[in-house]
UniProtKB/TrEMBL annotation:
Signal peptide: none annotated. One of its GO terms (cellular component) is plasma membrane. The chain crosses the membrane at residues 7-25, 31-49, 89-108, 120-141, 147-168, 212-234, 255-278, 290-311, 318-335. Keywords: Cell membrane, Membrane, Transmembrane, Transmembrane helix. Pfam families: Cons_hypoth698. It comes from the Bacteria. It is found in: Cell membrane. It comes from Candidatus Lachnoclostridium stercoravium. This is YeiH family protein. It is a multi-pass membrane protein.
Length: 342
C-alpha cells in the first residue's frame, strides 16, 4: 500500500499523458505514439516542475515500465516464422547493423560525443529505433535527457525515410521484394517500417511488401539480445577499469539485463504456442500493451527532460543520426545488388 501511494501519483500522470499520445500514434503512425509522448512530457514539464510526490512514480515508469515493455515485445516475435522468411535477409541485416555501430563509434571518437548518446543512436539506428533504445538504456545507465535526445534523432530520420524511400525505391527500379528488404533494413522504427512499406504498396497495387518488410524488421529486432548482452559485458569491463576501489565489489549480476531473458522467454512461448495451433492473434494484446508501456515510459522521460538543453546540444547527435541513416541505406542497397536481389 505504501508503494502504491509512493508511485501512484507519478504513474498516473504518465498514464494520463500516454492515452491521448497512444491514440495520436494510431492516427499518425508515421510519427508514432512514443514521439508524441516525449513531446507532450517536455511541454508539460515547462509548466509543471515535477514535484516530490510525483517524482518516484515518473522515475519508476521511465525505468521499470520501459523494461516491462521490452519483455512484452517478445510476444510479437514468432521465431519459426522469422527463421523461414527472415533468414534470407540476415546478410543484409548483419551488414547494416555493423555499419551503423561502426559509424557511430567513429563519430563518437571524432566529434567527442557523449558515450551514452552515441551508443543509443548507434543501437537505435541499427536495430529497431525506440525499442532498441528502451532495451539498451538501462544497461548503460543512460539518463532521461540522453534517451530523449536519441529518440528525437531516430524520429527525425524515420519521418524522412517514410516520405522519401518509396519514391527513391521507384527511381532505383527496386522490385517489390527488394523494397521490402530495403524498408525492413534501412528504416529504424517498426511503425515507420510499416508506414514506408504501406506507402510503397499504395504506389504499387498488389505488391504486398508490407508483410515481408515487417518480418525483416522483426528479424532485426532479435539483435536486441546480443547487443544488450555485449553492452552489459562492456559495462562490467569499464567498472573493473575505473571502479576506484569498487572493482572488488563489482558483480556482473548488477549490470546483466535480466529483462532480456524474459524477452527471449516470451518469444519462445509465442513460437511454441503457434506451433501447436494457437492463433497469433492471441498474443496481439501483449504486443499492444508493450507499445502502450513504451509510450508511458516516453511520457515519463519527457517529463524529466530539459528541452532547452536538448535543443542546445542537438547538433552533433543529429549529424551522427544522419550519417548512420545514410550509411545503412547505402549498405542495404549495395548488399542487395551484391546478392542479386535488386
Amino acid at each position: 500500500m505504501t508503494q502504491i501511494c509512493k508511485l501512484g501519483p507519478g504513474m498516473a500522470l504518465c498514464l494520463i499523458l500516454a492515452i491521448p499520445c497512444w491514440l495520436l500514434g494510431k492516427a499518425f503512425p508515421i510519427v508514432g505514439g512514443p514521439v508524441f509522448a516525449i513531446l507532450s512530457g517536455m511541454v508539460v514539464a515547462i509548466f509543471y516542475q515535477t514535484k516530490e510526490k510525483t517524482q518516484a512514480g515518473i522515475a519508476y515508469t521511465s525505468k521499470k515500465i520501459l523494461q516491462y515493455a521490452v519483455i512484452l515485445l517478445g510476444f510479437g516475435l514468432n521465431l519459426s516464422e522469422i527463421a523461414k522468411v527472415g533468414a534470407a535477409s540476415l546478410p543484409i541485416i548483419i551488414s547494416t547493423i555493423s555499419t551503423s555501430l561502426i559509424v557511430s563509434f567513429l563519430l563518437y571518437k571524432l566529434m567527442k560525443m557523449p558515450a551514452n548518446i552515441s551508443t543509443l543512436i548507434g543501437v537505435g539506428s541499427s536495430i529497431c529505433g525506440g525499442s532498441a533504445i528502451a532495451a539498451a538504456a538501462p544497461v548503460i545507465h543512460a539518463d532521461d535527457d540522453e534517451i530523449a535526445q536519441s529518440i528525437s534523432v531516430i524520429f527525425l530520420f524515420n519521418i524522412i525515410a517514410a516520405l522519401v524511400f518509396p519514391t527513391l525505391g521507384g527511381m532505383l527500379g527496386l522490385s517489390n521484394e527488394g523494397f521490402g528488404l530495403f524498408a525492413g533494413t534501412a528504416v529504424n522504427d517498426t511503425s515507420s517500417v510499416t508506414a514506408t512499406a504501406a506507402a510503397w504498396d499504395g504506389l504499387h497495387p498488389g505488391a504486398h511488401t508490407l508483410d515481408q518488410a515487417t518480418i525483416v524488421k522483426l528479424t532485426r529486432t532479435l539483435a536486441i539480445i546480443p547487443i544488450t548482452l555485449i553492452l552489459a559485458i562492456l559495462q562490467a569491463s569499464k567498472a573493473r577499469r575505473t571502479g576506484s576501489g569498487q572493482e572488488n565489489n563489482f558483480s556482473l549480476k548488477k549490470v546483466f539485463p535480466f529483462f532480456v531473458l524474459f524477452f527471449i522467454l516470451a518469444s519462445v512461448i509465442t513460437t511454441a504456442a503457434t506451433s501447436f495451433g494457437v492463433p497469433s492473434s492471441v498474443f496481439q494484446p501483449f504486443k499492444e500493451l508493450s507499445k502502450f508501456f513504451i509510450i508511458m515510459a516516453m511520457a515519463a522521460i519527457g517529463l524529466n527532460t530539459d528541452i532547452v538543453k536538448l535543443i542546445r546540444t542537438g547538433g552533433k547527435p543529429i549529424l551522427m543520426g544522419l550519417c548512420c541513416w545514410i550509411a545503412i541505406a547505402v549498405v542495404s542497397l549495395e548488399m542487395q545488388d551484391l546478392l542479386g536481389i535488386f
